[in-house]
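TEACHING EXERCISE
Course module: macromolecular assemblies
Task: Read the component lines below, then compare them to the predicted structure of the full complex.
Student: A.B.
Group: 4
Components provided:
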Amino acid sequence: MKMIFSYLRPYVPRMILGLSIKFTGTIMDLLIPWVLSYTIDDIVPLGDVKLIFVWGGVMFLCAVTAFVTNVTANRMASKVARDATEVIRHDLFEKISYMSCRQVDEFTIPSLESRLTNDTYHIHRMIGMMQRLGVRAPILLLGGIIVTLALEPVLSLTLILMLPFITLLVYLISKKGIPLFTESQRSVDKLVRTVRENIAGIRVIKALSKTAYEKERFGKVNSEVVKNESRAGITMALTNPAMNLLLNLGLTLVIITGAYRINAGLTKSGEIIAFLTYFTIILNAMLSITRMFVMYSKGSASADRIREVLEAPDDLVAESVSHTNDEYHITFENVTFSYHKSKSSAVCFDNGRDEKKNTLEDISFALRKGETLGIIGATGSGKSTIARLLLRLYDPDEGVIRISGNDLRSIPQDELHTKFGVVFQNDILFADTIASNISFGREISQEQIEKAAACAQAREFIDQLPLRYEHMLATKSSNLSGGQKQRLLIARALAADPEILILDDSSSALDYKTDSLLRKALAEDFGNTTTIIIAQRISSIMHADRILILEDGKMLGYGTHTQLLETCEVYREIYELQMGGDSIA
Amino acid sequence: MQSPVPVGEKRKLTMKETLKIMSRLWKYLYRFKWYGLLAIVLSITSNLLSLVGPLLSGRAIDAIGTRPGAVDFGKVFYYCILMVIFYILSSVLSYILSILMIRISQKVIFQMRSDVLNKLLDLPVRFFDSHQPGEIISRISYDIDTVNASLSNDLLQIFTSLFTVVGSLVMMLYISPALVLVFAVTVPVSILLTKYMTGKVRPLFRKRSAKLGELSGFTEEIISGQKTIKVYNQEKTVIRKFDEKNREAVDSYYKADYYGSMIGPSINLINNLSLALVSMFGALLYLFGRLTLGNLSSFVLYSRKFSGPINEAANILSELQSSFAAAERVFRLIDEEPEPRDKEDAEALENVRGEVRMEDVHFGYTPEKPVIQDLNIKAQEGKLVAIVGPTGAGKTTIINLLMRFYDPDSGTISIDGKNIMDVTRESLWLSYSMVLQDTWLFHGTIYDNIAYGKKGVSKEDVIAAAKAARIHNYIMQLPDGYDTVLSDDGINISHGQKQLLTIARAMLLDSKMLILDEATSNVDTRTEQQIQKAMRELMRGRTCFVIAHRLSTIRNADTILVIKDGRIAEQGSHRELIRLGGVYAEMYNSQFS
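Instructor-supplied answer key:
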């Protein structure tokens, strides 16, 4: 919460002005019933019609002033809320953008996403509401009590008697109700998940004739939702009738006490009438304060979640470390790495049986400029991790990675990344034109874009599109086939003529012919680019200068195709299987 | 194939449509008519009781009088005790009423949701291919919730408001018809004002949620692409883009607030104005002896009750409007054309031998764009048919047709000489097993996922299948073994392992035909080799249709069909096709170049 207040600091003058305006408006609201009582008790007995109109006019004036000031103050409050939220959200997004991948992994993507949208939305609402109700409700409550005390202290005390009961009531109901709501939210999530599953698996469900079973499953989840929602609803529904009852009982008490007071000549009856109006004001203020309380607790939960992100330490800072001079462009020296440095709770394929097992262990290789490295290995053997380490998306636990002799950790991130063209496994394209997906915010001429597209074998299909390079991609590029997507991704990686090219399983959806044309084009046009190709298909990597075979994070073989065929049994096995053996599906 | 329907059309409903929706909603409500009737009775009673309150308090004040020492305590206590009784009764009744309304609305919602969910499973595959999951889900969660809120709150509120307004009006008329004239001024003003305000604010609120939705869509895209953005140094660009979206989101929030925050003070203003008018004229009436002080007090209380619902009316109406729109979307889903029924005289496929034929089949997902043209395939019992061809050539479409997920535009498909249009879908589906590229596992234990396809399998069968699919050892390494729950956030299970689980699932089935659509594309070559034996076992004695990228894996198919542009370009065994030197040979040889 402190963090939120620090964001509000620049707006303090505006807030003070707004709050003062609000204060005026609230006072006006409080004046009206007072004028009412004054009119009835002191003016009416005078029998002066003109005076009645004058005081009616005063009430009218108060009402209008209250309206104008309240609206103005509300708008000012909304503006402050808007500006503050904009800054908070910007900072949060900026922070996330520069966060290391390890940090993103720890927070998880859905959680970051909900912090950026839901939590900031709660904060937005809270800042607005707090300013609006934060002054009004306490003033109405306190003012109402003070005015009634001034008007008639004994009657007021009767009224104040009811307040602790109401507070207790609200507290008890929300204490019971909020967990019930959480529960029912959970069952709704379950319902949504079940539906999502069914939509995704509709072919399998139909093919296995499990529709009846799935309907039954729906029925169960549905009943659960209904049960939980009813329980939460019925608990919360108690609030209004109970509150009304307490209040009306208070009202009855006021009348009885009032009867004694009037009988004793201590009170006038107009005051009782005014009193009843204040009563409603006080009640509404109570309601507002409970609402504020709920909003504040929701808001502070959100604020905590936002603060966690903002206060996350800066990871992966550039350090000045060793430099060696050698002829190699890229070197890995005894690199060892694990995704789960501290956490060992998750059971992952990566670490299989032993929970502390490393994803990569003792990896060493060296590439000269312009050479190609092919990496092959089973799913989960750590192929992609090598690429991530080279890009410094993660730092290795042990060992050193160098580019042109410089330790990766000594190269500033933005400088490091300009060296690369990368296609990740399941990489994304954005809902934008083909041209801007290829140039991707970098200064790249149309000519270069087309050249990259040609090399990536994407030109053919782009030329068939009516708008060609201006063709808009749909979200998740659902209007492209897998092969077309991969070709665009490769074009994007090639467009800036990178020093180092990394292709992680990026030709799996290409047919063999396109794949081989691509390899040919790469060899011709990007001969100076050091390339790392990660693949499952042996034909994609067997022409590489060096080939690395990974199994369970360890190097099983390293060398040229011919060398490996002789020395590495696993490599030979894979080769025979894929290129000639008899397998089936 | 994809023609996503725009989400949440914003058109206004016509009167006729509204009536139709109301009558359908009414049908749902009608099933619980006795509950409903009880609710109406209760709401009338509870409102009448709470209306009595102010009247009684007025009487009590009159009994107190204005002069000291003249208080009629007997009367005061009499009225006060009555007040307490009425208030308690009224609160208890209104609580019972709330419970009743929640029960009714939950019953209706349960029914409506069941209708939608059951309908969903009866829809043809075509529906799911052409609708975004998010859109379907939003109907089941968001739209039904809107209807629910409207049924449990608005409906009751309309009833109670109606009685409150009418009741208060009657009471006020009873106290002082002249003073009621005040409302002839304030009520129209407040109706006009709220109508104007809601008309203005509603689209702004809609825009506000739309913009927030856009923002979250954008962040989802960006954060999931974080690695890509990082390696291309595009943080600044996306931050700039984010700032634009953010600006739009907070701005539309502000605009909605700008007008929205006027509503409260406006209602307040009108209430205060009518209070001022009532007190002024009330005072005058009192002066002329036409009104007692107690009556004036009761009148003030009634006037507050009276103006409340009037101010709310516009709000409630607009909420009803949006819930009608939501109900319409739900009903539209319920009205979707279901999978056509099996023919009257459809017979069940029994003792299938497994001879599959496709004759002169033509098909397109849309009429103007044929995908399959003049296709003829003959797969003999127990033979292996491989289908190869470039992406988009129509390979998966053949599977869609074989499984009758789609019906061909012309031509026939038959099993053992029986046209598949003449057999029951269930028996057709059960005679195939399928392993698809998109592995599908559901939230549940590994055991349930493997055993999913077959009723009454034993634990031994499941384990045997898992062993055959070479996934047993992995399962046993997990802390909970076969009882491990597969979920999105818990166990991190690789693509390859998911596929092995679906292969294990297929192994349990005893169907005569098998479809493998890129079934091992996510399994690495060595594992693939390891499950080779199991796969061969799975294929023994079954007619198999295999779609594969890796040409090496289909070399020993009995027939290889090379599909290009929806037609069979070449057909024959591996050796024959290589000898032919056509498309297949080119594809095959290019992997060595």
